[in-house]
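Practice record 12: protein with flavin mononucleotide.
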Amino acid sequence: MSAAPSLFTPGRIGGLELKNRILMAPMEKNLALPTGAVTQRYIDYCEARAAGGAALLLLESMYVHPAGQNHRHQLGIHDDDLIPGYRRLIEACHRHEARVGAELQFGGRQTSSLITGVQPRAPSPVPCTVLAGGDVPRAVTPAEIRELVEAFAEAARRAVLAGFDVVEIHGAHGYIVGQFLSPWANRRDDEYGGDFERRLRFPLEVVRAVRAAVGPGVPLLYRLTADEHVEGGLTLADSCRIAPRLEAAGVDLLDVSAGIYESAMWIAQPMEMAPGCLAPDAREIRRTVTIPVSVAGRITDGQVASRILERGDADFVTLGRALHADPELPRKIREGRESEIVACVACLTCNDLLGKNQPVLCLANTHTGREREYAIRRTGRPERIVVVGAGPAGLEVARLLARRGHAVTVFERQAEPGGQLLLNRPVPGRAELAGLAVSLAGAARRAGAELRFGVNATVASVLAEHPDTVVLATGAVPGIPPIAGIAKGPAVGPFEVIRRPAGRVRCALVVGGGMLGVATAHVLAERGAEVVVVEAGGDLAFELGLRPRWQFVADLRARKNVTVFVGTTVEELDADGALLRRAGQDIRLRGLDLVVPTRPMVPACALGEALRALDGGPAVFEVGDCREPRTAFDAVQEAAALGHRL
Ligand SMILES: Cc1cc2nc3c(=O)[nH]c(=O)nc-3n(C[C@H](O)[C@H](O)[C@H](O)COP(=O)(O)O)c2cc1C
């Protein structure tokens, strides 16, 4: 008997039986060629998820026409030449008894002329300035609308020819189908806009045309935004009216999601949102139809998934980032090995990479998107290796070196693994990031690395292990910024402030609004202090990237006891005050009882220098912040590269 039996009961979509209730959510991966063609790297990604046990893989939004392309390395399905590549992908997944689906999409107002080379085409000239190019789109004519419907039908025909088991229409996330439905994006007053029925016309035409193209035997899925979460956009009540109409037009399953670009935190939810947050919406929609419903949204483990099925919120669960982080999640749940799951922490690094047109990798799993390149190759020359530091970089390099056959010992000064990840533990909504350390440490241990805590690594203690190689992952520590008077004021480092609740703080100045500064400000504000954050640059937590910082920063700015100054420098400090300067204007702060300088971060590299100075000492390498202070993502990527090389 497997764990989570409800998840592993076969399910049915139209005439297709699926071996379990787990669908892989469509996720753009930026792994396609600029022509839209699938690559071997893409196939490897999918085959790993098929082998891991998901029943149906929905690849990603595939543009049905080049004018609707969203990203440079997105899959296309606009050309017959693309079919052979998909055949190879589908064959690879079928070998593992997984079914494969194509999601048909056209970007409309949510794309950019920088990608397509043409002015975006949309229902109305409503530009999208969030995450898209901000071009004013051209309103499509009725003749162009017919061409668009035909492009969806042609794409569906190609999908069937390639052998896809199901076809999904991307009606969610504010792309063209959703744009026609939405009063936010559709300002027309013709037969395709104006009232509910006319806004519904285009989606229904697409559904009927795609249904006709695929024939009655191929299940037709429709991705639906339950709620657009923008003022004047579609609401859950609207979606409950739309759902039965889609069913009547020939849809076999509704795949419930949420949001549009302007409310993108609802498309791919940050860690501040609860696991399974869209399930209540799915339940309401499910009440209005007789076809099965699936739902996405931070479904992170077997318990969350089973609860959704058992409560009757949905018939299937759609997992995006959870399978991105761990392709084997279904198998691990079924075999009762949930503690081994590499958990997605909803850091949104993947989303940020998507926006930058870079391969969509993963903070939690360096193997993701590099399945072939990073296949484990056993070493021919096993060594004794000491890794110093059990932060994310140290844990990742230790795991890989141990998996490859080296004898690895990790020294960590703190009593537990995680390094700077642990600083997130007291930040409201961010504790999951600290949980990543548990997952990384478990993987390192299972690989055979020995982890020792509470050990202060010195030259002597390292040499006592007789290592051939030492990898330093000692991280970075906050330094003292060159501000006049800093020695006179009540300055305390951010690590101490976050780790140990100081005595009562009434008014604190956080110097530097990077990711550490924002975390420090959250913690101090949560403890009741009035907090002033001063950042010389133009934005807070800038190094995290747009999507990962979005909610983190918005939540800070929303706090009543936090004042943020960007584009501002701290010129001088005294016993209880500070002089700030913004655009040539002086601002004086008084009554400060705490100053927390959060920049610069200084690499902790003394041990490396001492080891390198030894005659005939071990080989020494550095990874992560002790080479150069950066994000955890950069650190683990660098660690993985070294872990596969040594
Ligand atoms: C990097 C990234 C790319 C995505 N690309 C698509 C896509 O191509 N089509 C789509 O319908 N949804 C896309 N989504 C949304 C996901 O399918 C999913 O609904 C969302 O991530 C929430 O589910 P999750 O918490 O299981 O990831 C994407 C999300 C992310 C993070």
